[in-house]
Predict the 3D structure of the following.
Amino acid sequence: MSAATQIRAVKRLKSNPPSDAPPKAVAPPPLARGLGIVALVVATLYFLVPVYWVFVASTKNNRDLTSTFGFWFAEWNLAENYDSLMAWTQGMFWQWVGNSIFYSVTAGVIGTLFAVMAGYAIAKFVFPGRRIAVGVIMAGLLMPVALLTVPLYIEFHALGLVDTAWAIIIPSAVSPFGVFLGMVYAQSSVPTELLEAARIDGAGEARIFFTIVLRLLGPAMVTIFLFIFVATWNNFLLPLLMVSSPDLKPVTLGLFGMVSYFAPNKGAVMLGALLGVIPLIVLFFSLQRYWRSGLAAGAVKG
Amino acid sequence: MTLTTPATASAAVAVAAPGPTRRRRGRRRREAVTGWLFMLPFAILFVVVFLIPILVSIQSSLFAQQSAGDGLYGGGEIVDTFVGFDNFALAIGSQTFWAGMGRVVLYAAIQIPVMIIAALFLALLLDSLIVRRPGFFRLAFFLPFAIPGIIAAMIWLYLYTPEVSPFMQYLPEGTDLMAPGTILFSMANMTTWTYTGYNMLIFLAALQAVPRELYEAARIDGASGWQIATRIKVPLVRGAALLAVLLSIIGTIQLFNEPVIMESANPWMGKDYTPMMLTYNSLLGAVSPSGTGIASAYSVLMAVIAGVLAIVYALLQRRRGEAA
């Protein structure tokens, strides 16, 4: 190829950049496209307007909430609402958020490590009871967990664990879905030849797992961690039954208790709702590709 | 998994093993032990959190908490008395239990189809190349899932309360979203709002695993976009839909957060509006009969009902799949 033709080829590429547009043959007709966009916009409003309203409501006092236009700001009362939130939570609000973070992170770390270990064992080792383990984990996936919470309370009460952090962390750290994901990922991204090579080089099983396998399963672990973290943060019935001391409550339980006992300033409640979910939303947005890969594994295999 | 990978085979030859079978048996045993050691931490926690509670609920459902009756005021100490299947007889004969179960089943019958169809519809729209960059919509629809159910319920409670709500004033005069006839739909809306995006992502993931060439081939054969969606894409996500519906049925039987929040503002609903509320409140002693025995009996009964519903649904789906 001569230099001249090469330059011409580059020029052609520059003037005709590969377009995102679908080829004409697969592009939907204009009417369908219009209707589809309308449907998407309506759905977006349905999902986002309540969140937007929470933000607006958290800046208003009770009087403005009832008397001013609901979808726009009135007198800015954010600071007053914040003071009122701190007052009726008796200064516990940030500790509750901290508790939620502590429970979710601890359950997430322990649960992810155990789930990956179990998934790796199922994917890469032959041992008696392996098929039973898979069956039991699949059954656990479909188990109505809320129904287990009542007997779990009886059990933990007998063990003297009620009203301790463990009563929330231990149940939250057990994730059959995490094991399932760990198994799927270990099957697809840990080559057996690599393990064999490491064994021939004399590496012990623990060392192989911690230095090779965990590194290969890094993205999978983020996904599993995310699922456990969010499930722990969002669980309500478990902390409701298990903890009663104010300084052990996660933020969901703390807010609920306050709302059901007092009749606090509504703007302050919405501010509490908003501040109580910010850590989750940050995690959601920053790690969204891990969500998708986890759901993809579940959807395709399931 | 085979044990004779090239590496082990050549190693065995090089050492000129005295007894290859014994060597292999030793290896297999070591592998079994290692496998179990990796399983162990999860297995222990699984036993503590899943298996023991199942046994506990069965065992404790056979006992009732009765006052000994010899106290100064006839009250006396609460003691566990073995009552056999009395708790189950009480639970099965309880009108409040079945009334709650009826509400939950009605709720599921309305909410699950609406949510699954909406999720599928949105997933098909995002997969249909109508918008070039679906990332924004994907995030927007999924955002409610980041909000804990109990907090979402608080938000919607305010949205339904006429004095606070930003939109109630635009609805026809006298609309009450928290009346006995409407409250079930209002709660169904909360669940739909939270989980539609999550289910949509599952469908989207299943759709995106399909090779694009399949659609192009269908196009060349003259299929319209509508036909591609209904004849190719929908059948392809059947497996994902089956799982999503199963998980939704199981989730709905345990309906708790939304009615608890609604009840805090609408006391007429009672402490036994759904079976899970009834169970929780009988454990707490807020409804009669109370105690761990009857609460466990309700739990076991609900688990059995959830299992039966899930199995019936799965069998119906399989039959339909075979007929199609």
